[in-house]
Amino acid sequence: MPLRCGKGFVEENFAQSREQLQPVLPTLPSAPAVITQLEKILSSRTFRSAEGQKNFLRYAVERTIEGRDCIKEYSIATQVLGRAESFDPRQDSIVRVEARKLRARLAKYYEEEGDQDPVRIEFLKGSYVPVFSTAEVIPPISAALPRVAESAPPAELIPESPIIAPAVTTKWNRPSNIAIAAVLIVLLGVAAYVGVARSKPGPIGPASSIAVLPFANLGEDKSDESFSDGLTEELIDSLARVPGLHVVARNSAFQYKGKPTDVRKIGEELNVRTVLEGSVRKDGTRVRISAQLDDASTGYHLWSASYEKEMRDILGIQHEISQAITNALGVQLIAKNATDGSAIPLGDSPALNPEAYQDYLHGLAFLNKRNAENTRAAMGYFQQAIVKDPNYALAYLGLAHSYSNIPIYAAIPSHEAASQIREAASKALALDSTLGEAHIDLALACMYDYDWPSAEREFRKGLDLSPGDTFAHAWYGTYLVKIGRLTESLAEHKTAFRADPVSADAGAGVARSYYHLHRYQEALQQYKNARDLDPNFGIARQGLGLTYLQKGMHQEGIAETRTASQLMGGDSMITGQLGYGYALAGQPEMAKQVLADLMHRSSLGSVRALPVAHIYIGLGDKDRAFDWLRRAIDQKDINLYLESDPLYDPLRSDPRFPELLRRMRLKS
């Protein structure tokens, strides 16, 4: 039954409902039980990246619990979804759309993660007021019976024949209540002897595995958030360089930011044995850092410490924390000599310019937002850090990362960025030869220039120095796809995904390898998983759309490609894929219309050749397709996977195709 709005809601609704339903075992949940369930839903994997729907759900539940005014479409739009006070529901359907998505996501949650939850929160169709109910969860009797014999309970408590428990709902009638209650009592008696499967601890990773959770910013200045986040990332990066230590990547660790910590649950979800958490408080030129290492299998503390020092000593604090962690886990905190591979024990870190360090951390924060505007902002912060401390190796490394990423997000030819990548990464290595990430940047510069052998060497060096670097494995997997070593590529992407299990990007990497292997069904499943992790991740939807198209599921492919286009701001590669899809679907006029749009951009001097080539492939115009592919190769387009992409299968038997591979230096 829906819970009404108005004063006295908590006292009247919950108290009266319990009194009326006292003879029945299941009852309406208490207000604290509803709040507990709300927090569990909001921190679930299903709702991890659905910020709008999370805000909608919290707003609706809390207002209902508080007994405030009834929830209206206008208030949701203006107070939750960011619409202006001029919002008109007759012209803008945002609330109805989000409500529909919320209902679907809640249903998915209760089908999967929440199938054992005792409290249900739902929205009836056409209503924005949540309905609260209880669902008594009983383990299946068939699964319980074998364990009954082990515990040897009294025989009268063991049913002689299987019992099928009826579905529990919030609609009850007197005749059925007695029967249902009787069944529940019997099953509860059995459960008392056999236990509940959910109480078993889940699998925990190897002893030398760790998740570094985002350190909490305890300072009053919210701008210090980038400082605490950056410190966390620095610890992740430094630990990822330790041979034999499995470190969860940033994306997966940062999903727990600002949420209550349950180290046992985190250990199960991320498959790690230990969890590091802490806090940071800045006060002028001084910083106080507290950290503790917990055993995820028991919840016990393994180590904890607090540090209060000047900002210039921050690297020393990081080293002390890293050393304590590696001692606790039984691994050695060492780096490798880039020249001969020998081990280098890491000693005390030099003093650091505090202002340069803060600029560097701000740069990291912007770089991780992964778009063109923020990548350029990151460049500015890294450059400021270098001006303040010309010998700051990590600032050069951050700059190299920025130059490596900018061709992905902006219409900047990758080969133009290559020289800037080399300059910044080489300077970083000159200052600190242990930075494996800098070799990965150098590998990307070589890859952008089609210098495949040099790229291979740099990838190998980078992975040797930083074996736990998730992005190194992901980028190496991308390189292997480009040169046609697809089985190896799949292995690298799976390695990256194991270290970053809730990253849509890492999941999409696995899917991409399956796609290039022509294993479309597995690719579809992996892309769907990545989409579920982050419904707004356009690259996953783009890949899903392309896979649908290759399977001949043209309408599904076009639909996903359209969604990707909306999420990625009409990127020309997505536009080309849409035209390609129309052509495959037997809609050549629509494909030509998309082509005309791209050609119009060409007249303005800003077209990429590759998406034009893809449309001509779809239309079956091989002559023009080859012409535009040559131009794409000359542009050194980062999205060109000529060796293995199934999209180019119609061209492979043409005698002109080997010439394209030679042009890319993939064939001699």
By DSSP (H or I, 4+ residues per run), the number of helices equals: 28
How is the quaternary structure best described? single chain
CATH topology of the domain at 209-352: Rossmann fold
Main beta sheet, described?
A: 6 strands, mixed
Structure report:
- The chain is 56% helix and 8% strand.
- The protein contains 28 helices and ten strands.
- Strand 1 and strand 2 form a beta hairpin.
- It is globular.
- The termini are far apart.
Features:
single chain; 668 residues; alpha/beta; Rossmann fold; 28 helices; 10 strands; 8% strand; disordered N terminus
Compact description:
The protein is an alpha/beta fold. It has 28 helices and 10 strands.
How do the strands and helices of this protein lay out in sequence?
Elements: H1 9-20, H2 31-42, H3 51-66, H4 73-79, H5 94-111, E1 119-123, E2 130-134, H6 141-151, H7 174-194, E3 209-212, E4 216-217, H8 225-240, E5 246-247, H9 250-253, H10 263-270, E6 274-283, E7 286-295, E8 301-310, H11 314-329, E9 334-336, E10 343-345, H12 354-367, H13 372-388, H14 393-409, H15 414-431, H16 436-448, H17 452-465, H18 470-482, H19 486-499, H20 504-516, H21 520-533, H22 538-550, H23 554-567, H24 572-584, H25 588-603, H26 609-619, H27 622-634, H28 657-663
Parallel strand pairs: 3-5, 3-6, 4-6
Antiparallel strand pairs: 1-2, 6-7, 7-8, 9-10
Helix pairs in contact: 2-3, 3-5, 6-7, 8-11, 8-12, 12-13, 12-14, 13-14, 14-15, 14-16, 15-16, 16-17, 16-18, 17-18, 18-19, 18-20, 19-20, 20-21, 20-22, 21-22, 22-23, 23-24, 24-25, 24-26, 25-26, 26-27
